[in-house]
Each structure stands twice: as C-alpha cells, then as structure tokens.
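Sample entry (322 residues):
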Amino acid sequence: MAQAVPERPLAFGGPGKTPAETAAALAAGVARFHVESAHELRVLAALAAERPASGPPVEVLPRFNLPLSDGALHTSALSMGGRPTPFGLDPSEAGEVMRHLTGGSCPGLRVRGIHAHLASGLGAADQLAVAESVVDWAVRLFDRYGVPLHEVNVGGGMAVDYADPGARFDWAGYGAGLARLVAAHPELRLRIEPGRALTAYCGWYATEVLDVKRSHGEDFAVVRGGTHHLRTPATKGHDQPCAVLPVAHWPHGWPRPTARGDGVTVAGQLCTPKDVLARGVPAPGLRAGDRVVFALAGAYAWNISHHDFLMHPRPGFHFLGR
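Predicted structure, serialized as tokens:
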C-alpha cells in the first residue's frame, strides 16, 4: 500500500471496504479506520484479533449519518447525511457500536472519536453549524459511555462556485468559528476534509476546437475530448468556466469553420447529447483550431470520468510547479 506522504499515518475510510482490503491495510500498518457499518466493525474486529497481541490497538472512528439542519439540507449541493444514504451508521446504532467498542468484545480496537461527512457545497456559516452539531452530538455520546473523546472529523464539503470562480469559501470566518469550537473543548482534536475546495483551483483542462457548426440557430464547438475527460459539468449540471485562446495559424487548405453568433455551446466527441462542457460561452468569432481552457478542473474531473466510453484517447497530463 503506497503512501503519497511516506512515514505519515494513514486512515482508511469509505463505504464497501472488502475483507481483503481491510486485511491488506492492517498488514501495511494502517492504524486508523473510519467504520461505515456494524458489519464493517465486526470484520475489522475479527481481522484485528489475528494480529500479534503485543501490537497497539487499531483506532476506530465510527462514521454516523447524523441529522442536518433544514438550512444545510436545502443549501447543500450534495447531501450524504440527514436523509437515507449508504454512508455511515444510523444514529440509532450508536449505542450498540459503543457497547462493542467499550465493553471488551473488540480487544484489538479502540474507539478514538467520531467521523461525520454530511454535505457538500456549503458556505462557511452552514459548514460551521454542521461542525458544531457534530461535536455536540459526539461529546454527549462519549460522556454517556464514560470514555474519552479524542477526535472528531467533521468532514468537508466546502463550497466551490463553478458559476463564479472568483467567489471563494470564507476560510477566515470558518477558521475563526472552529477556533471557538476548539476553545470550548480543549481536549479535542478537530479534523476537516477540505478536498475539492483546495484542489479544484489547481487544475485546468485544455483542448482544441475541432469543428464549429450551427444547429437550429445555435452555434456548437466540438472539441477534442469531452466529458470522458472532464465529467464534472455533466455530473453536477453546470457550465464549466472556461477561456478561449485564439490560434491564428490554420495549416489546412479548406475553409476554417467559424462561429456566427456571440454565444457558443462547447461539446465533446461522444455520441450523446450529454457530452456538453459549457453552454452560452461568450466566444464571438470562435474558430476551429482555437484552444479552450477549462478552469476548476483540479477535483472530481478526470477521477470520476468514464474514461473508456467509445475508446477515445486519454488526455495528457502536465504538472507545473514553482
């Protein structure tokens, strides 16, 4: 099990962990598991019991699908909690899980805290309210069973505004709120999962306009690639922000297709009308051979794309650093 940051501790999370994956993680020295179900807990306990008794216990953070406020439910772009979902344990199972972890039936495991990733696409105020409710619930649960609460992972889901790339999550306000929360519970370590909100801004998808055509009064630019490279706009139902880079050179002997109107729909090469990257792009005079560069492609872009759909070539990757 390779580590991106060697000699740093790893946590194993996510639903649907197979027994083979869990065993491999234990063998590789992973000492922290975010447990998604009672079944996962039983499997982990059985496999951890097979390790040498002299080793330290495996730390467990049960993940719970906790209630969300109406405000967070209505403003989130994607809810993983507060409603029926495949993520985490139902709060009604908290007692059973805590009795297993604190009653001696799982000697190879030690409960360290709680994990709750409940929603995505929240602003700082709603995100802070979620964190406060998760911490409050965890403190009351651990007090009830008389065990120390060392850590609460309040998840992520910080909003990224694809319609307004210049608008950023209020990290200063969120950080100040978390500082107040930590001050109220000085013995507690809080963890967050910023994910998309950090990396989305660090990636671009650059492609070439292959053709420009007009259909029922609308201009379309067909680009090399498409949603099998950058699936984010099709998945989230938005227009991916982009910029056009005009290219003067046209090496071919035939006429160069050119947009007639001011707005262009940018589509890919796949034989599906869902292969659309952006609509209404202000690109008067866009021509075949020009380049289009899509911003905010550093998260949930290539990773979630249906790479081999229709067997088109994969894109090249270029990593730039200072």
